[in-house]
Write a structure and sequence with these properties.
With 283 residues, this protein is of the alpha+beta class. The protein has helices at 2-8, 10-17, 24-46, 156-166, 233-239; strands at 52-53, 59-64, 77-86, 92-95, 100-103, 123-128, 144-154, 173-174, 180-185, 197-205, 211-214, 222-225, 247-252, 273-282.
Length: 283
């Protein structure tokens, strides 16, 4: 149901971005907006809470604070439990059965504004003005109450570190840009010089273990010229550290991968990547 409510709340965004004029409809909406504001503030007063105003007529109050918590940045993964209710009657419209997970910075009409202010580990109640659309349990122009609990902010580096810990890897080297180099099997000989061609077997995965590319099960190998820019930065930088016969795992953030835009339909933006690589030959 959250999908239908969130779609409906696109109407909020449309109303909020409209400029004022003197039509009867807009004057009526203005009256409703003032009524909603009074209703929202009255709710928080009754709860002995001092709400903070946010964009587009909403207010929020923390019910659990965490002064040292991390604020979300674009591309961070957010996880939370939520409950949607009629602010005036308290009737619950929907509550999460499983945590809601989404990337910060991609528009979510109900949660987008609040998450700019909420820190990792904090909890809050949000009051949003209603719209001209009605929903089951939420008549038109009725304020919506949003309760957020168990809020978690995970940056790409947080998620990478959790992946490494879960797999009990030992990081042999971590670069300033965030590449983690994990040697599984040592190689022999010298590290290949710039211009050398390295033939590789590899598998590319997401942090959840799902493979998106690779040639481990095939007879062919993938050729990379050391010092070239034919692959993403994290891959090239990792391969440049490997000797003949070496097997390693490379883990790196999207800044060394496919960035904000991702790659086609396979790899979304802001996605950390994992590559297991074996150096089969150096020419």
């Amino acid at each position: 149901m959250i999908g239908s409510i969130q779609k409906g709340f696109w109407a909020i965004l449309a109303v909020w971005t409209m400029t004022s004029c003197l039509s009867n409809v807009e004057l009526a909406d203005e009256v409703k907006a003032k009524e909603n504001q009074a209703q929202i503030l009255a709710y928080f007063t009754k709860q002995n809470q001092s709400p903070i105003a946010i964009e587009n007529g909403g207010y929020y109050a923390l019910t659990k604070s965490n002064a040292t918590g991390e604020l979300a940045s674009k591309g961070d993964t957010l996880r939370m439990d939520y409950e949607l209710a009629n602010l005036l009657t308290g009737q619950v419209i929907e509550r999460s059965k499983d945590p809601l997970v989404y990337q910060f910075g991609y528009l979510n009409p109900i949660f987008a504004n609040l998450m700019t202010y909420l820190k990792d580990g904090e909890e809050a109640v949000l009051g949003l003005p209603g719209t001209s659309q009605s929903f089951d349990g939420l008549p038109a122009f009725t304020p919506l109450k949003v309760t957020i609990k168990n809020y978690v902010v995970r940056s790409q580096n947080d998620r990478i570190d959790e992946f490494i810990a879960a797999n009990k890897y030992t990081v042999n080297e971590r670069t300033a840009e965030g590449l983690r180099y994990i040697r599984l099997t040592p190689g022999t000989g010298e590290i290949p010089a710039s211009g050398k061609v390295v033939k590789l077997k590899y598998t590319g995965r997401f942090l959840n273990g799902i493979a998106f590319d690779g040639n481990m099960a095939r007879t062919d190998s993938f050729s990379v010229t050391i010092g070239s820019s034919q692959t993403v930065k994290g891959f090239s930088a990792g391969v440049a550290k490997m000797r003949l016969g070496e097997r390693a795992v490379l883990v790196f953030p999207s800044a060394l991968g496919y960035g904000e835009k991702g790659s086609g339909t396979k790899i979304p933006g802001f996605t950390p990547l994992v590559f297991e690589i074996y150096v089969a030959k150096i020419q």
